[in-house]
Amino acid sequence: xSARRVVVLGAGPAGLAAAQAAIALGAEVVVLDENERVGGxxxxxxxxxxxxxxxHQWSRYERLRGAxxxxxxxxxxxxxxxxxxxxxxxxxxxxxxxxxxxxGLTIEADALVIATGAHDRALPVPGWTLPGVTTxxxxxxxxxxxGVTLGRRTVVAGAGxxxxxxxxxxxxxxxxxxxxxxAAGVAAIARGWGRAPWQLAGVAGKAAELGEYAxxxxxxxxxxxxxxxxxxxxxxxxxxxxTVQRVDADWRPIAGTERTVECxxxxxxxxxxxxxxxxxxxxxxxxxDRFVVVDERQATTAxxxxxxxxxTGIAGADAALAEGAVAxxxxxxxxLDDDRIRGALRARRRMHAFAARLATxxxxxxxxxxxxxxxxxxxxxxxxRARLAEYADAAxxxxxxxxxxxxxACQGRTCGPSVEALVxxxxxxxxRPILSSxxxxxxxxxxxxxxxxxx
Length: 455
Known about the structure:
With 455 residues, the chain is α/β, with parallel strands linked by helices. The chain has 13 helices and 20 strands.
């Protein structure tokens, strides 16, 4: 009997753990990732430039990467189609995204593990289109991979524990962090992180990690502002300063609390949005809160399709590692009562208890009150809040066509959730699952090649 072939989409913590677990059961594993190197956002790196102090659990990464010697790995692989109607077939183009001649690749598999992760979300702010403003994840990627910072003095703002490693990475890369600005208030943080503390006993490593980040702030005398938000970014041609205000429990700005912080760059991070395109194409059910639905085996509602990591819920790298191990094990034919998977199952339970606290930092509806009418919401098509308001009562298709919100290069990945919040209605950007851009010429070449193979 031949080994099961398992295809893994994504080579971050979840994807690498899935590949390792499937390989250990004797499966033939193929890993596809769009980046130049495996590791995902968590282990974003450059072999020569990366400061290892920015990398947590690096020895774990090296073990996972070592396991890939027994797998087929395609980096710079842009998956453009996942077909599950007649078995599992994954279509990709391999090569730099802007290359003129990428290689077409079609892989048939017995099982598929979707570990496509999430991208960080930044809420619109007046002035956020100025040069010098990026997402928090982009700022961290520049520091980890290239050893550079956005500017000399950065404000890191948004919500959630992720702001802390971003700030630490910027400092290690040689920059200065003017402030870390957290929108969740003291009362909300105390309620969220203080309840049932015994559930956190098994995640002491996370506490140590947070302590390390807090120590970095103290050493560099970086203010950490709680219950505040960046409500305006100022500059003529580039970032020069930001307005920071206190916000209430629903993130509504409190009048009279404005203050100005001078800086030349801003890193915005208000949580994460799962990358659902591959899962939707594969026919996986998605929950009301827009995550892939999985069972105890990390199996989706689509036959022989599994999912792990932040595409199933935002829970951090440790949860992704555990979920990935379970998904890869099950995809390769393993059963959950097997002793070899017990450790991953225990780790998954522990990390899910930790992840439940992250809801403390979830976006609150009052953020829309810091927007002006001329604040750009859809950056690709320069669609303002006022323009969206004109068509707020239109059907989702009418809204998109009239305003062009979400019809640009990112296809709503950046603006989609914010547009839906502003019009108070689902717009369905992620129901048009375009995985990656493909040239018409590339598509024609693939069709001709496939036609010849079947003659």
